[in-house]
Amino acid sequence: MSKERDLEEFHEKAKKYDASQIQVLEGLEAVRKRPGMYIGSTSSEGLHHLVWEIVDNSIDEAMAGFATTIEVIIEKDNSITVTDDGRGIPIDIQEKTSRPAVETVFTVLHAGGKFGGGGYKVSGGLHGVGSSVVNALSSFLEVIVQKNGKRYYQKYKRGQVLSDLETIGKTNLHGTTVHFLPDPEIFQETTVFEYKKLTRRIQELAFLNRELKIAIKDKRDDETHSPQKDEFHYEGGLCSYIEFLNNKKEVLFEDPIYTEGEMDGITVEVAMQYTTDFKNTTLSFANNISTHEGGTHEQGFRTALTRVINDYARKQKILKENEDNLSGEDVREGLTAVISIKHPDPQFEGQTKTKLGNSEVSTITNRLFSDAFQKFLLENPKIGKRIVEKGILAAKARQAAKRAREMTRKKSGLEIANLPGKLADCSSNDPEQTEIFIVEGDSAGGSAKSGRNREFQAILPIRGKILNVEKASMEKILANEEIRSLFTAMGTGFGAEFDVSKVRYHKLVIMTDADVDGAHIRTLLLTLFYRYMRPVVEAGYVYIAQPPLYGVKHGKNITYVQPGANAEDRLKEIISNLSKTPKPIIQRYKGLGEMDDHQLWETTMDPENRLMARISIEDAERANIVFEMLMGDSVEPRREFIEENAHYATLDL
């Protein structure tokens, strides 16, 4: 809490946040029976979702102007403590439940300060909804409220009240502390929190809320964890976010462009900067919620960006009368942008409910950004000229790529009617049932074709290392036979014509050798999928096969050792458990071609026995940074990465 804050004024405002602002909609009974309905899943994702439900409540206090610091602690027993210096959850009696408001918040579903509009003008999470769900799914939960000069305490077990709210002391502080331990009966897969995963989101929240200081601390000290702490506070807000995203890139101008405005109770912030790159990175948020699928705020921004740049280019005569306007794709090339809106009633839609649907936001974002961006260009003509010239170059490249695409179609076609000759397709036409294995080399491809189940498994062999699309122009990408074959086999089309709904297989499996070359090929393929087939990755259709590292033959029996951090230990354990007669024969599989068709099916392709890793995009901007660092033109960031991480590498020469 800032020392300069007038505590008397603060407490006066805090008194207005009382039990009357906690509205009750329904009970809690279904949460433990169907937790997935409330937190998505009971896997690691659902586990970490519990933290965000509590942190969102503290963020709501920050957005309302009452909290300036938040701390998240992973305790030694893997429980979580979240503390803020906001007003403190109300402790007086809630009218409908006749119980203290804080108890209502933690024991009644859909009870919180957002409903009715009295508690919060703008809310990220549904304040109170998340609290009760977290409580229901925790072995225990404790809450401490510091308010009105006193400290109040209450404890719960699996959503049930263990003790009445009690006063445990006096204090001149204010805020809320929530301490909970996830219930292993619910989270059977794991109850272990990942520090890096929590830190990424916490840093993002700090970027989005420039007034906020938010810290995370890990108190665990065991074989896999060591104590650590990070604290984030970005006075530059979205501009700091842009600088973070563009840290390893060459930029067209030094300081990010920033605009902020409000209309009809809706606040719009935009920060943007152009780089010499040809990729576009646009991140958008509504009330701190990441809108991965975009929405009306992105639509308004893009429309305004294209119109304003074209108008400016015409008025400044950079674009000639006989030249076409720049397209949206042209003016977004090389752009890094972050759009953040605050809305009193955001409406989300889309497959994952991460697309903003409020129609009025498009008009408001368009108008607010247009006015500010027009003024900026007029006041900064040198930067304006660079932006337009960047768009003109992109337009020329787009036109050249279009010609290359047309020529490519004439030569071999990117149509389903002309499937690549090397593809061994399956007989089923049901995408939900079918799989395609991208296999390195003819030898492994032959084994895979012989060993597969022809009903639902297709095989597409590739020769060596495909083109690194991070460094290649569109013409070169379209001219690459291996890439053309892959897009043709998938049936999705390419570039602007890409349509994920036309995908022919819902499992795209990368199956390469377990050596350095195999890892390189996997990286090249993943770069291609991330850059040009990203909807396929986002849909969860991309997998990496996990062929065994070892085969231990003992008599007629073979035991396989799958990859993993403890593979060597498991190999030793298998050997120690075998009889000395006959002597076990250990084979190290460096290549898929070393296995016959039966072994490849049994270990790597049979759905009953195989091990596969699904590729997901948890954090798009960081994935973008990693791909650029490892596969881009800039050598220095890659050298730094290698120097910092070389000691983790194990080379199998």
Give a summary of the structure in a few sentences:
With 653 residues, the chain is of the alpha+beta class. The chain is 36% helix and 21% strand.
Question: What would your notes on this structure say?
Answer:
This protein is 36% helix and 21% strand. It is of the alpha+beta class. The protein folds into three domains: 7-232, Heat Shock Protein 90; 238-404, 2-Layer Sandwich (Ribosomal Protein S5, domain 2); 412-547 and 614-648, Rossmann fold. The strands form seven sheets. Strands 2, 3, 7, 8, 9, 10, 11, 12 and 13 form a nine-stranded mixed sheet that branches. Strands 14-15-18-16-17 form a five-stranded mixed sheet, with helices on both faces. A five-stranded mixed sheet has the order 22-21-23-24-28. It is flat.
Notable traits:
20 helices; Rossmann fold; 5-stranded mixed beta sheet; alpha+beta; 28 strands; Ribosomal Protein S5, domain 2; 653 residues; Heat Shock Protein 90
The CATH C-level name of the largest domain is Alpha Beta
Task: Please compute the radius of gyration using only Cα atoms.
Answer: 28 Å
List segments where confidence is low: pLDDT < 50 over at least 5 consecutive residues. Answer: 411-417
Distance between the termini: 57 Å
CATH superfamily of the largest domain: Histidine kinase-like ATPase, C-terminal domain
- Number of separate strands: 28
CATH architecture of the largest domain: 2-Layer Sandwich
Which secondary-structure class do the elements indicate? alpha+beta
